[in-house]
Design brief:
- This protein is an alpha/beta fold.
- It has 2 domains: 197 residues, Periplasmic binding protein-like II (D-Maltodextrin-Binding Protein, domain 2), CATH 3.40.190.10; 118 residues, D-Maltodextrin-Binding Protein, domain 2, CATH 3.40.190.10.
- The chain is 41% helix and 16% strand.
- It is built from 17 helices and 11 strands.
- Strands 1, 2, 3, 4, 5, 6, 7, 8, 9, 10 and 11 form an 11-stranded mixed β-sheet that branches.
- 46% of the residues are buried.
- The C terminus is likely disordered.
Length: 412
Amino acid sequence: MTYFSKEDTLATITDNYPETIAVFTAHGFPQMGDEVRRRLFAPKISLESALTLKGTSVTAFTRLLEAAIEQRRNGADVSLQAAGVAEAGASLSIHGVLPCPVRIPLLESFQRFAEGYRHETGLALRAELQAASMGVDGIARLVDQARDAADLPDLFISAGFDLFFDRQRFGRFKADGVFADLVKFPRVNASFAGLDLPDPDGHYSLLAVVPAVFLVNTEELHDEAVPRGWEDLLDARFTQRVSLPVGDFDLFNAILLHIHHRFGDDGVQRLSRNMLSSLHPAQMVKSDRRKDQRPAVTIMPNFFTRMVKDGGPMQAVWPADGAIISPVFMLAQRAKRAALQPVADFFASREVGEILAHQGLFPSLHPDVDNRLPADRPFMWLGWNTINGQDLSVRLRHCLDLFQLESTGGVS
């Protein structure tokens, strides 16, 4: 749904959608938080002009504004409304979170699919698909209260390694064979050559990945070498010079797990030692304009590199040893396989893959999607032996303890 155009003034947007004020103030327009100053200049400048002056991508920033509007205006019901679902009658339930940059186009596509699915099958799709920024606490409570598979939604969709890989939560259902991988690509996208991404045990359906890359402030580096890989970033020369996406739980957790897998406890402690600040990715893009705490390097989802101003000091670097990836996946109930297969086919379709890859820069596993990545863009992946060989939630808590201990000076 379109709420505004790039030609609208900042005043028009914030007057109609006050929830966008917080987005503006957090992402490079602090004066928008002051009503007097906002009334002074907001009616005089269009969104496109303001973002052009800031060197910010109109498309990327618009998605942030739209996500805030959707979340505020429609709350948890936005997915239900988008799917055109009635409360009565036979239905299938879908719960989960969608990455913020692609949530709106995915919901719009899902609405069209859900209407056709109901017409053909008589089944409504009751979907609660929140923005990933809202977290998965609601899903965690639902799973904790479930006595058996009948108390669970029929299909989950999410990202990251936290809740859905917890042996005390989803693990008890997975051990009983509740879930089945309903996605069978004839081959995996060429972007992932050499990686074993499909779940060999047939539980998780991987759809795409969220890559973590570096954004380097060349002015802060001065004459020092640009870090080209994760080991470079752990070097002592970056002590308190790195910004991390701590608030982006899915990606931050993936970073910790990968660093620990490759570099052990020492690697996590060194990463913590080197952290200067925690910024939202949109703030990271403009970190060169901060008066203090200007990181030399920020770690961020690849999507936000779109907002980097050409010719400026901020340089996007794809790690030579691989962008750490957080998986986007589904979990579908095996017992509902027949009814869920068309739904799984939709989420695994080329249409959805292109939304993920082209609008979110989340490379898709679909073999026919052009991920628009050069050949020299490797990925770093935990691997299923590691994922299935341990309780990732326990390992993650260990990493978080190490990280916090180092951050508070407990480790020298």
